[in-house]
Design goal:
By secondary structure, the chain is of the alpha+beta class. The chain has helices at 11-24, 35-42, 46-54, 78-86, 92-100, 108-117, 189-203, 231-240, 256-269, 278-293, 304-315, 323-329, 430-437; strands at 146-157, 163-173, 179-184, 208-211, 218-221, 227-229, 243-246, 332-334, 340-343, 346-349, 358-364, 367-371, 378-383. It has 13 helices and 13 strands.
Length: 438
């Protein structure tokens, strides 16, 4: 007797055969199974059960599976359908209407089945349009030729639960990947100048800087497409002696190195970072930059610090500090009516004897330096406080202003002398009592 083998054509057939084997015992023979009884148990026709018995009750595909008639209802219209598919038209309703106008008498379902079997004729999306040439190209610059710069932002959680936002200035050498980052309370233009000066002091001055169309750099473009620089930024370029190239809008691949640097800062430096103040955060960022510049980078196939010092610095200009550059490091602040200037979200006192309405301020590590507007005199210094309370300076209110009468004074009042009684004999003053009774 053959062993019962069934691969699950129908679960009901397998169950019926097992039940018949239990009833008949050793007399059960799979080759001589009673088809009439199996028909009564399963409801499957005898012809189908007879075909299944010839195959050992195994599921086998139909012999005509995959075969199509030589002449079908689509005969004569397949060429039109193939032409539509090659042009990217794969909507079955549109294809159906196209061939129906040519005399097709079949159904929409037949057209859908044909399209499903011939999807290979549909061109890929990237070649549906006419070739337009290169839309972007990776370019290589020489040593010290170009830097890329941009801003990035991150949120800061304070102990009180308040959310603040800090701006990260990032700049990178396009040739070797030497990088520099610094954090500021905001992305104002004065902080952009300070970040660029510190970066040029560390990396040298390149021929040009690549950046996007930020408002602190460019205001608009003229009729010929040339940029109209922001006037303060244009003066800054002339003072430092470098050029700026703008990237194509909404095309971040042009300055992809600095875009990737900002992403790397957010994924590698910032996660889990804690700090005491902005100066502490910049100290940690400086250590991180030194570590990354000393490491081998596969993308540039070099150690950025070594490559930059050997090749790029020979082509870059050295930043020489002068009065005009020093002014960019000390932005101008207006003195309030109560004698304070505002810098990095804190207020610092200015001596009262300084009579002008503006002063310049600079932060060096944990010290705030307040200069006169012409940078010739250091007015006072402050330590960066942990809180946001006002920081007073010595002599801030040394001599207070005094008002004098503007009209002649004509009224006069009298001041009486106050008598101080002798307390030891006051109780023996009987005349005082008599006077009070009268």
């Amino acid at each position: 007797m053959k062993e019962l083998v069934c691969n699950g054509l129908d679960t009901i057939v397998s169950q019926a055969l097992n039940k018949m084997k239990e009833e008949q015992g050793n007399a059960f023979n799979l080759d001589k199974v009673n088809l009439a009884e199996l028909h009564r148990k399963t409801g499957i026709s005898r012809s189908k059960l007879r075909r299944m018995r010839r195959n050992g009750f195994k599921t086998v595909p139909h012999g005509a599976t995959g075969k199509y008639a030589c002449s079908i209802v689509l005969s004569g219209y397949t060429g039109s359908l193939d032409d539509l598919l090659r042009h990217g038209i794969k909507n079955s309703q549109i294809c159906y209407e196209k061939i129906k106008s040519s005399g097709y008498s079949g159904s929409l379902t037949t057209v859908k089945r044909y399209i499903a079997r011939h999807k290979a004729l549909i061109p890929a999306k990237r070649i549906l349009v006419e070739p337009q040439g290169n839309r972007g190209r990776r370019f290589v610059t020489g040593p010290g030729e170009a830097y890329q710069m941009d801003w990035g932002f991150t949120n800061v959680s304070t102990p009180s639960g308040k959310k603040l936002r800090v701006a990260c200035f990032a700049i990178i050498c396009h040739h070797c990947g030497q990088r520099f980052i610094e954090f500021f309370p905001n992305a104002k233009q004065e902080n952009l100048f300070i970040g660029m000066i510190y970066a040029f002091r560390y990396m040298g001055i390149p021929r040009y800087v690549l950046t996007d169309n930020m408002a602190s750099v460019v205001t608009k473009r003229d009729y010929a497409g040339n940029p109209v620089w922001q006037k303060d930024y244009e003066a800054f370029m002339k003072a430092i002696d470098f050029q700026t190239k703008l990237c194509k809008p909404r095309h971040p691949f042009t300055k992809g190195k600095v875009e990737r640097l900002i992403r790397f800062v957010k994924e590698n430096f910032l996660p889990g970072r804690t700090f005491w103040d902005l100066n502490d955060l910049n100290r940690q960022a400086w250590e991180w930059c030194i570590k990354q510049n000393d490491a081998y980078h596969k993308a540039t196939d070099c150690v950025p610090k070594q490559e930059h010092s050997d090749l790029c610095m020979a082509q870059c200009n050295v930043l020489v500090m002068n009065d005009s550059i020093r002014n960019y490091l000390c932005p101008v602040r207006r003195i309030s009516f109560d004698g304070f200037i505002s810098y990095e979200d804190r207020r610092y006192g200015v001596p009262f004897n300084y009579t002008k309405s503006v002063a310049r301020v600079q932060r060096k590590a944990d010290t705030i330096l307040v200069y006169s507007d012409d940078m010739k005199r250091l007015l006072t210094t402050h330590m960066v406080p942990d809180s946001r309370k006002d920081s007073y300076c010595p002599g801030q209110y040394a001599s207070q202003p005094e008002e004098f009468p503007t009209a002649p004074v004509k009224t006069t009042i009298t001041l009486l002398n106050k008598q101080t009684p002798n307390l030891s004999f006051e109780k023996f003053n009987f005349d005082k009592g008599d006077d009070e009774d009268e």
